[in-house]
Design brief:
With 305 residues, this protein is mainly alpha-helical. The protein contains 12 helices and no strands. The chain has one domain.
Length: 305
């Protein structure tokens, strides 16, 4: 999901205590979402989970738009960009759900949340937005953290963990590409809810050809795995995504981006607390480096005096 959507407004509300509480709540929820994906995969085929999550969440967002009378079907030239963004978004989550079957939640969370760095690289080469020395420094710090993750054998789970790590890393690349498509096409001026629906509708279709490649559709379903699926679709997708877009419209984006490091932090910590995943010193070192890199990249530039 791209945070840039709907950021065209000029007047922003001061970043108050409510804003801090809401953004921390959202980052916590998105960290918990990574755990929910793993738990849902225990009960159901990952591709079924990915498609169902997008479909049910998209239906809820569509009903919300109808209730709020948000126009969705105007011919505004956003269809090509919407399909492209949806395809990239769909591939991103295919990779995430597959990676969760192969490697640890903590490692997936760290790898996928490198997205801002891929956006910075893409913006530099494709959009003509020159990368600042500060952004380059932050990127180097974060990618040193990635090197540590790949060297950490304590948190690797099974012989295919490295493949899962690569999938998680690529999911961040596709996430970044989604953001670039939104910035480069007419989606940049579209309503955030419409952008989200483009992504969810297409993402509900992308996993379907892969259903037969990931074993039976139903694995070992129980109350926990069903709740994990409903949490993703009804709470993460249908509630926190629109809430985030509302915050992006209401508050300065530079302030919101300062909290981006919390999602991987919560994801790593919750994977240890809730799933009992081993958290060696290397994974914490990688978390610190990646979080530091994110803070460096997202820190607003000082205005010239």
């Amino acid at each position: 999901m791209a945070a840039e959507a709907g950021t065209t407004g000029q007047d922003r509300t001061a970043f108050d205590g409510l804003a801090v509480a809401l953004v921390v709540f959202i980052m916590f929820t998105w960290g918990l979402n990574q755990v929910a994906i793993r738990v849902g995969n225990w009960g159901f085929n990952p591709m079924l989970m990915a498609a169902g999550r997008a479909a049910l969440g998209g239906l809820c967002v569509f009903l919300w738009c109808q209730w709020r009378r948000i126009p969705l079907f105007a011919r505004d030239g956003t269809l090509p960009g919407g399909i492209a963004a949806g395809l990239l978004f769909g591939v991103e989550f295919v990779l995430i759900f597959l990676a969760m079957d192969l490697t640890s939640v903590g490692r997936v969370t760290l790898m996928m949340n490198l997205m801002p760095f891929w956006v910075a690289i893409g913006s530099h080469f494709l959009l003509g937005e020159r990368m600042s020395p500060r952004a380059l420094a932050g990127m180097c710090v974060a990618f040193f953290g990635v090197f540590i993750v790949f060297s950490d054998h304590v948190t690797q789970q099974g012989p295919h963990a490295m493949r899962g790590d690569v999938m998680a890393l690529l999911s961040g690349v596709f996430w970044g590409m989604t953001t670039l498509v939104i910035k480069r096409t007419r989606l940049a001026s579209a309503a955030p809810e419409k952008i989200l629906l483009y992504q969810l509708v297409v993402a509900a279709i992308v996993p379907l050809p892969l259903l037969g490649m990931e074993g039976p559709l139903i694995r070992n379903p129980d109350v926990l795995s069903v709740c994990a699926f409903l949490f993703q679709a009804l709470f993460v997708v249908a509630f926190t995504y629109p809430l985030w877009f509302w915050m992006v419209r209401r508050y300065p984006a530079s302030k919101l981006s300062n909290f981006a490091f919390l999602t991987p932090a919560f994801g790593v910590l919750l994977s240890g607390v809730l799933l009992g995943e081993p958290l060696g010193w290397k994974i914490f070192a990688a978390l610190i480096l990646i979080a530091t890199g994110l803070m460096i990249v997202n820190r607003p530039a000082r205005k010239a005096l």
